[in-house]
Amino acid sequence: MTETAPANVARAELGSTSGESPPPQHYWARFARQPLARHLAVALFGAVVLYFVTSALSPYNNVLVGEIALYVVALAGLSVLTGTSGQISLGQGAFMAVGAYTVALLMNHTQMSFILELLAAIGAAAALGLLIGISATRLKGPYLAGVTLLLALALPPIADKWSSTFGGDQGLTTTVPSAPGNINPEQWLAWIELAGALITLVLLANLLTSRFGRSFRAVRDDEVAASLAGVHVARTKVTAFVVSAACAGLAGAFLGLSTGVVSTGEFPLTLSIELLAAMVLAGAGSLIGMWWGAILLVYVPQWSTSLSGDFNLGAGMSAYLATIIFGVVLIVVMIAAPTGIQGGLRWAWEHVGKASKDWLAARVAGPGRARAHSAQLPSNRGDHQSAPVHDSLNQ
Amino acid sequence: MNEIRDSRQVVARRWAGMVAAGSMVGALGIGIVAPAASAQAPGVTSTSITLGATVPLTGPAAPGYDEIAPAMDAVFAWANAHGGIYGRKINYVYLDDGYNPANTATLTRKLVLQDNVFADVGSLGTPTQAAVQGFLNSQKVPQLFVESGCNCWSDPKYPESFGWQPPYTVEGKILGSYIASHFAGQKVGYLYQDDEFGQDFVKGLNMELPAGAVVSQQTYDAATLSGPLSNQVAALKAAGAQIVAMATIPAATALTMLPAASIGYFPQYVMSNVGDDAPTVGPLLEAFTRAGHGSASEVKAAAGLLNGVISDAYFPPEAQIANPWVKVATKLLKDYAPSLYAKAGLDENTEYGVALAFTVVQALQAAGKNLTRAGLISAIEQSGKNFVTPGFVPLSYSTGDHYGFQGAEVVKLTTSAAPAVTPTGNWIGAIPITRVQVTNVGSAPVTTYTGKIELPPSSLVSTS
User: In chain A, is it the N or the C terminus that has fewer CB atoms within a 10 Å radius of its CB?
Assistant: First the structure.
């Protein structure tokens, strides 16, 4: 909700502190007011659902679920960068490559623990993100897109150039830590990637409800106003870039694990462009919404393969069907719901929710009192402090 | 229940009944005739064998390479039309990975875990197939006849993997040996793609050429190849290279020859067969010249640059239309893949697909009636040497060798050899200038092959 709020709301948030709110009366109410607790509760619920989903799925579908999870990580970072802090990047694929090569190099040359390797991948991508982010503070819109585009084009050939280090065409092999018990390896990898996705989403959701998140939005809406309100604009933009790059680093490490090998061909320019398109399609600025984008990225090629099989399309047609479907969906969604799939769902949820509330109120209390009740609703909804649970679900 | 039906459903019911009856008979047949049928390998039924592959049908690697799998399918259609393999029809599922290893990883898991293919056969590319080598081997799925000249397919760590075409090192050795004996004392320059393809090829050249002979080594990057390789060509000319040995893809071949010609530099080109396919390179030479606003006569002259290029061939070049294998492959494509033939004709890629699919068919036959994955691997190791293919030398398969062809003849491209065979009309003949040479990726010397060169079996000639 707050992402689409107008600039004055974002600025108003900067001034508010938790101390001003009235003391909660109930333990659960107090619990629900803590962003971390709220986000953890949602993530825990998601984890339980995903546990049952992955257990019911075939090994191959678990492979796809794992890929969805890794794309969620990359898309969530991009969503924070573009949707929340207002910067555009065509280089998410390049940051993924950095993360993937970091993990692969560490796996081939050291005996580090798996978690440390993942953290190193995040750190390496974040470090590059810091460098690019610093230049990003001086660039805007298409110029920034140009710099990040250059990154996506220029990084892979480096790995080709020093093929003895980076494995050249054959790439560097990665190994997933062996699964405990008799869990099949596809399910195990899906769990690792889902865990990474849920942790990333919790951390990002927390970040966005913190002072940083408010600063991101303030800078996105109006840099001058933000700096007048005391926000350090350059530092805020760099922070957003580093966060986004760190997410891409983890996603890249996961892509390397899913593929089994890290080589330059996995990070073409089209990867960065597809990620950007999927993020916009899913709803820029949203986090939960990134699942839609990831699902489309993974499943559209699957559906198009079976579609072209069913309709017996020629090779020339079927090869491009996935791109065509993706393009059509993008156009339709942008016309029907300019805020993306998640924005459209949110709109529908709010309208259906309001309509059903009115209907219920009318049924229960009779016409006179229902009108009075619904008249109160707008003021309730305008108060951000009073609707925290609603807020977190929509992020 | 079945008796009470709407009359409109009678036809549908009749069909359903026939299908049900058919499957009943099938089930009974399996139950009575082959009690052990439940132990059948994945992808194998009493009537079918499902094989899978990932190949580039879109993206930068697709032009030309997208013809190979459909050409293989033509051979499988021919085999199916003649009774299949022990009564089993081959069902070939090839998916588009766009030459992206991440796609290959996902699609190969789909083929193995979901589509239950019996084996991965004829998949294309070094980076793409290297990405799934570990997975396929851990699943004990045969990774057969990978379309790549990487040395990595014969590796004791990966017993399920087999290469097929000559490793680039073998090509380099054969061409290096030719240069050393026929152009002794001349200055040699290298121009190669700066990745494993080029590096392996150069490794082979270096094993055969005297150390002092190489005067300049130039490289290019495949990912950033976008214009004439003028700097590299100028450096080769400045170093006085009389022979230019090249490991290039077709576009890079053209982008080398054109700037060289424009500065009046006409060395003897000796190149890997990866970049020598005349039906591919000829039109490129013309197109690039036209794009550079060349006159009609310059465009015509550009295609002629291929005249005199030395390369190697490990099966009969498609321009030798009198060759029995070329005749068989042409007829087979015409009959079983008419649309592919109308589009591509018999070029290096379609002939490659046909030759590779012949190998697949014989491997399945050799594995016998009771088809298993382990049985297929051991059949290739035991009898792969005896497979009859268009290749000049026998396949080198044994328990310790999964390479494939390790021999080739040196050929010279010429405009005066053969009539047109490709639909585009851009043809050029290739005349053998040595006997077939044979060696290996290791230290074996390059020697003349004295064994038999197989002709197509009479059954193939008469029934195709």
Answer: N
Cβ <8 Å between A163 and B195: yes
DSSP B211-225: GGGEEEEEEE-GGG-
Q: Work out how many CB contacts closer than 8 A connect A with B.
A: 102
Model confidence over A313-354: pLDDT tens digits? 665 666 677 778 888 888 888 888 878 888 888 888 888 888
Amino acid at the residue A315: A
Q: What are phi and psi for residue A279, nearest 5 degrees?
A: -65, -45
Judge whether B71 and B350 are in contact, CB under 8 Å. yes
Q: pLDDT (tens digit, 9 = 90+) per residue, B181-203?
A: 999 999 999 999 887 889 899 99
Buried-exposed string B168-179: b where 16+ CB fall within 10 A, e elsewhere: bbbbbbbbbbbb
In angstroms, the separation between the Cα of residue B174 and the nearest Cα of chain A is 24
Of B62, B70, B105, the CB nearest to A260: B105
Q: What is chain B's length?
A: 464
CATH number (3.40.50.2300, 3.90.230.10, 3.40.50.800, 3.40.50.1820) of B168-313+409-433 reads 3.40.50.2300
Q: Which of B301, B212, B196, B204 is nearest to B245 (CA)?
A: B204
Residues B104 and B111: their CA atoms lie apart, in Å, by 10
The helix/strand/coil state of B449 is coil
Q: Quick one: tokens of B343?
A: 């589009």
Q: Taken in order A52, A53, A59, A65, is the CA torsion positive or negative?
A: negative
Over the stretch B306-342, which tens digit does the pLDDT of each residue have? 888 999 999 988 877 788 899 899 999 999 999 999 8
Q: SS3 sequence, A145-177? A: HHHHHHHHHHHHHHHHHCHHHHCCCCCEECCCC
| Greater model confidence, B222 or B14 | B222
**Domain B48-166+322-402 CATH assignment equals 3.40.50.2300:** yes
Token readout for B77 is 């259609």
**Of B402, B417, B216, residue with least CA distance to B316:** B417
Q: In the beta sheet, which residues pair with residue B447?
A: B438
* Contact assignment for A260 to B196 by CB distance below 8 Å: no
CB contact under 8 Å between A171 and B130, yes or no, is yes
Please tell me what DSSP assigns to residue B297: H
What b/e sequence results for A172-184 when a residue is b if at least 16 CB atoms lie within 10 Å of its CB, and e otherwise? Answer: bbbebeeeeeeee
* ipTM over cut 0.85: no
Question: A4-8, A298-302, B254-258, B398-402 — which is least confidently predicted?
Answer: A4-8
What's the rounded Cα separation, in Å, for the pair A72 and A248? Answer: 10
Cα–Cα distance, B62 to B77 (Å, whole number): 23
DSSP B79-125: HHHTTTBTTBEEEEEEEE-TT-HHHHHHHHHIIIIIS--SEEES-B-
Question: Cβ contact (<8 Å) for B223 and A305?
Answer: no
A73 contacts A99 by C-beta, under 8 angstroms? no
* Helix H or strand E encompassing A70: helix A59-78
Contact A102, A96 (CB under 8 A): no
What's residue B281's pLDDT?
Answer: 82
- Is the pTM above the cut of 0.90? no
| Residue range(s) of every CATH 3.40.50.2300 domain in chain B | 48-166+322-402, 168-313+409-433
Identify all chain B residues contacting A318, using CB atoms and an 8 Å cutoff.
Answer: 57, 96
| Integer angstrom CA distances of residue B439 from A365, B164, B174 | 94, 15, 8
CB contact under 8 A, B194 and A67: no
Residue of A61, A65, A170 best to disrupt the B interface, most CBs of B under 10 A = A170
Taking each helix axis from N to C terminus, what angle separates A92-109 and A269-282, rounded to the nearest 10 degrees? 120
Q: Residue A133 in contact with residue A111, Cβ under 8 Å?
A: no
